Here is the input.
Amino acid sequence: MTPALKIALVVTNLRGGGAEKAFLKLGALLAGRGHEIHLFLLENIVEHAPAPAIKLHALTDPGQVQGKGFIGKRLAAIKLRKRYRQAEGSRPFDFTLSTLPFADEVVSLAGLPRVWHRIANTLSAEIDNLRRRSTTKAARRLARYRRLYDGKNLIAVSRGVADDLREKLGMSAAHIERIYNPFDLNEIRRRAEEIPPDLPQAPYIVHVGRFAPQKRHDLLFEAWKIAALPHKLVLLTSPNAALNALIVSSGLDGGVIVAGFQHNPYPWMRRAAALVLSSDHEGLPNVLIEALICGAPIVSTDCPSGPREIMTGDLAQFLVPVGDAYALAEALQTVIDCPASASEGQLERFSGEAIARAYESLAKCRRESE
Here is the structure.
């Protein structure tokens, strides 16, 4: 095993998004392997507690929001540099990992050494969406990302994200490594054995994801009507007036269950006839991997990026074109009759052990090159 490393993780806050939770999982994984992990929060907002072994450094008072403008970023960079040096003491960090653009920018302004920025989404999709509203704003966002990331060390959570950075954002000078998010296969399977009291008794297909344009609930509902399956459609998302209105306007009132956000979604996945993803874009859709670990069949749009990397072999037949309700409906019908499951080999590349080794190798190579 690699000798113990000293690693700094930097994130804006722990408010509860997917990137933040993936960061906490990574920190806990590395700490569990004997590494010294320091987590720097630019804002002391914690909705998900870090593992006890992680040393927490918050740069503001509890609940205080950090200014995001020109001056706010630079003040945050000054505070981060000071706290970072205090945490170094007599032993420097082997490498520093940040995630999400604001934290990445503050880290760059702070001038910290041995930095890697973790990119969790296809940034070109964000820019394309912005371009539909304002070409000027889209151009500014692209310029910001190129200024921030080109020529830097980047970790892409999927091959698709890496390709997006190189080909669509033109990051030709960046050093890009692909490292997937880590998954604890045994823990997920253990938690999947729990039985929530509100779990539906009737057969159902589940969708896990917030109500947002990217997730394309409108497409999902259109495909659901076409598929005309006898199952219920269960949505693991928080109740929302606009979502309810869309369900009613789609003629699905009574056929869709909005089950709310679930701290443990795995029993819902394990007992589902299938899990469906209808997104226009993703970075690496964790729910597809988690569903496969739980033993659930999956259906997904072939969106950028991630599904194509996850759904290999027999699973590839359940990839459908983005925005095609008829193809999605056909795949839903097929998966009920002919479900496919992932092999242990397909899942092993996402295991915590594999991901930890990748980060350890990265840190070792970086240390030996200096």
Q: What stands out?
A: The longest strand covers residues 6-11. Residues 70-88 form the longest helix (19 residues). The chain has a mean pLDDT of 93. The chain has two domains: 6-182+351-368, 185-348.
